[in-house]
Amino acid sequence: MKKTYYAAAGAAAIVVVVIAAFVILGSAPVVQAGDVVQVYYTGSFQNGTVFGSNVGQQPIQFTVGANQMISGFDQAVVGMKLNETKNVTLPPSLAYGNVNPSLIITVPIAAFGNQTVNDGMSVTENANGQQIQGVVTQVNSTNATVDFNPPLAGKTLYFSIRVVKITK
User: Fold this and answer.
1) 152: DSSP letter
2) Do 42 and 14 reside in the same domain of the chain?
3) What is the pTM of this model?
4) What does pLDDT average to in each consecutive run of 10 residues of the chain (168 residues)?
5) SS3 breakdown of the chain: % helix, strand, coil, rounded to 5?
6) Which domain holds residue 6?
7) 159 & 83 share domain
8) At CA 35, angle to CA 30 and CA 41, rounded to 5?
9) β-pairing, 143-147 with 130-139?
């Protein structure tokens, strides 16, 4: 009878500890819209080539839902807990969008003045009071083709994201 009492008391103690651990761990903060978060990320293409990472540097900080990040990245952190890592695949529609053909223009070489124009050359243009970056993609004797799409437009992106701070 004594053994049964001790076994029941021991089992009850274990249940209390498990419930307490669940309550404590289960109540860890979860990222929600409006929270300020700090994250580490690595961004890559389908072939594994890394196009950006802040691992080993300062975490990036942003307010969730404030349009400070591409929409898919912003959405991916919602629901994450502190120190959780998540891998996400973002189609162009949730990243930098599809390539917009109207942002690829032909410019007369004369518009560059005395500057030598080469493939891959960066170009800055003022449009409606805002500076936009473009890249020369093709040059011939009379014209240059300049692409003002974001460099990652039209690409599916893969991110590994780890939340390292959540401020409510």
Assistant:
1) T
2) no
3) 0.76
4) 49 43 63 98 97 98 97 98 98 98 96 93 87 95 96 97 97
5) 25, 35, 40
6) 1-29
7) yes
8) 75
9) antiparallel
